[in-house]
Design brief:
Layout: E1 8-13, H1 21-32, E2 35-39, H2 45-51, E3 55-58, H3 61-66, E4 78-82, H4 85-88, H5 90-93, H6 97-107, E5 110-113, H7 116-124, E6 132-134, E7 156-161, H8 170-182, E8 187-192, H9 198-207, E9 214-218, H10 222-231, E10 234-237, H11 246-253, E11 258-261, H12 266-269, E12 276-279, H13 284-296, H14 298-315, H15 318-337
Parallel strand pairs: 1-2, 1-3, 3-4, 4-5, 5-6, 7-8, 7-10, 8-9, 10-11, 11-12
Helix pairs in contact: 1-15, 8-13, 11-14
Length: 339
């Protein structure tokens, strides 16, 4: 191989425009490491002829399913990512989905799972154990860093980041806020994210008498999200279905304690009582108790935030994430060529 040759020609499929921030960061890192990456939404024969990929990676289970009727795609080495809801929810609510999911597992050379919990659930749905590879999500620790500014005086600032859809458990975040206010905790919740259920959330805010205590700010850029994390006191994650939340990891990298539901693999990222608190899914009383404890103890917030930052640097660095994928791509490509 010449020094100018890419180590792998990678075709990443199922990508929207623009790509999600965590995927763009991954692709940028792969390109810096001399992986030739092409990102597309759908694959056809002409694209395969022009790109000549060594590996195809479907970043979502649904994207792989969408290509089941394209036989040429599966003549290439294919990797599929299992991230959360598409393994935890859709097989149980969408007719025929579980069978299609199993077909993609059978055809893939390897299946990337974002955590051990998702791997185990995918195996229950037919994923062969020898195809499963766990690579955790990651954070750019040079971009997401603790704020150097002193915390402002005022109500406890809570932040949540996620789409306004039912699987994110938005109502449970609102119920948590209602309990905090009823207990006399002065707090404000900023909710970053857009989604088809925004109007329903606004009605819930009104019905729970949370006007003035909750702000729905809509979609935000990556720098805006980072700035919100650096100025908040607690990151609140009330998801019902999850792999591992990238936003929660980013908040930890910013030195913010996390109060999260025990959805998916969140307990694999957040150590209960060390980096934040992990409470049962659909438990706003437990979440409110955890937030109230943090509200009353500044030193606890500081210590848990510091521990969370250390946890990210040790276990969830972007550099290690990129290295794990390069190793996977090279292994799958080498198996195809027999080298």
């Amino acid at each position: 191989m010449n020094q100018s040759d890419p180590i792998v020609r990678l075709l990443v499929a199922g990508i929207g425009s623009p790509p999600e921030t965590f995927l763009q960061q991954k692709v940028d890192g792969l390109r810096r490491a001399k992986v030739d990456v092409t990102m597309v939404n759908r694959i056809d024969a002409a694209l395969l002829r022009s790109t000549r990929p060594d590996v195809i990676h479907f970043e979502w289970n649904s994207a792989a399913i969408d290509h089941l009727a394209s036989p040429i795609v599966w003549t290439y080495p294919v990797i599929i990512s299992c991230r959360g809801t598409q393994v935890r929810v859709r097989p149980h609510v969408t007719p025929g989905y579980a069978q299609q999911l199993r077909q993609t597992f059978d055809r893939a050379r390897a299946v990337h799972c974002v955590c051990e919990t998702i791997r185990n659930e995918a195996m229950e749905l037919g994923l062969p154990a020898d195809k499963a590879v766990v690579i955790y999500p990651a954070v750019d620790c040079t971009e997401f860093i603790p704020s150097s500014e002193a915390r402002r005086v005022g109500p406890l600032c809570l932040l949540s980041v996620g789409a306004l859809i039912w699987t994110k458990g938005v109502e449970y975040a609102l119920l948590t806020m209602r309990r905090l206010l009823d207990e006399g905790i002065s707090a404000h919740l900023e909710m970053i994210g857009a989604g088809r259920e925004r109007e329903r959330v606004l009605v819930a805010v009104r019905d729970m008498r949370l006007e003035g205590a909750v702000s729905l700010v809509g979609a935000a850029t990556a720098p805006e999200v980072r700035a919100a994390m650096q100025r908040c006191d607690v990151f609140l994650h009330s998801s019902l279905s999850e792999g591992v939340s990238n936003a929660a990891l980013e908040a930890m990298a910013c030195g913010i304690p996390v109060v999260t539901s025990d959805a998916g693999g969140m307990h694999e990222a957040v150590r209960d009582g060390l980096d934040g608190f992990v409470v049962p899914v659909r438990d706003p009383s437990g979440a409110a108790a955890a937030v109230a404890r943090l509200a009353r103890d500044h030193d606890l917030r500081t210590n848990l935030g510091r521990n969370g930052r250390g946890r990210i640097v040790q276990r969830f660095r972007l550099e290690d994430h990129i290295a794990g994928f390069i190793e996977l791509y090279e292994r799958v490509a080498s198996a195809q060529t027999g080298t």
